Amino acid sequence: MTKTIINTADAPQAIGTYSQAVKVDNTVYISGQIPLDPASMEVVEGGIDAQITRVFDNLKAVAAASGGSLADVVKLNIFLVDLGNFPTVNEIMAQYFDEPYPARAAIGVSALPKGVGVEMDAVLVIA
């Protein structure tokens, strides 16, 4: 087993005791990404659409740093403070993913770090 810690300046640095991602052999486990701008480490402005877009951009950056892409995602977990934003997630996700889509879960939560409305984590398998 080969275990590699993934880190990129193109995504927000960890705000706790975790790594952006861990790669074990050809599987990558990306930690939960919230809508932080990697340059400022501040929550992006512009409402839930901007937050969802930033989260996908952060996931994309970590996937690239691992040697993969969003096309390699096999499982995506989405955490939403307001499940009413689920249709917006679908609309924006369609800009980042093509069929076949990854397996996915959408979970309603009462709160997320820094008061954001969305967080996502992912598992990739890189061929």
Question: What do these coordinates show?
Answer:
The structure is a single chain. It contains 2 helices and 6 strands; from the N terminus they run βββαβαββ. It is globular and about 40 Å long. It is α+β, with helices and mostly antiparallel strands. The chain has one domain (3-125): 60s Ribosomal Protein L30, Chain: A (2-Layer Sandwich). Helix content is 21%, strand content 29%. The mean pLDDT is 97. It has helices at 47-65, 86-93; strands at 3-6, 21-24, 27-33, 73-80, 103-108, 118-125. The protein has a 6-stranded mixed β-sheet with strand order 1-2-3-6-4-5, with helices on one face.
Mean of pLDDT: 97
Number of strands: 6
- As for the CATH topology, it is 60s Ribosomal Protein L30, Chain: A
Q: From the alpha-carbon coordinates, what is the Rg to the nearest angstrom? A: 14 Å
- CA(first)-CA(last) distance: 16 Å
Q: Indicate the proportion of strand residues.
A: 25-35%
- N-to-C SSE string, H for helix and E for strand: EEEHEHEE
Oligomeric organization of the protein chains: single chain
Structure, briefly:
This protein is α+β, with helices and mostly antiparallel strands. The protein is 21% helix and 29% strand. The model has no long low-confidence stretch (mean pLDDT 97).
Provide the descriptors you would attach to this structure in a database record.
single chain; 127 residues; alpha+beta; 60s Ribosomal Protein L30, Chain: A; six-stranded mixed beta sheet; 6 strands; globular
Element layout with pairings:
Elements lengths: L2 E4 L14 E4 L2 E7 L13 H19 L7 E8 L5 H8 L9 E6 L9 E8 L2
Parallel strand pairs: 4-5
Antiparallel strand pairs: 1-2, 2-3, 3-6, 4-6
Helix pairs in contact: 1-2
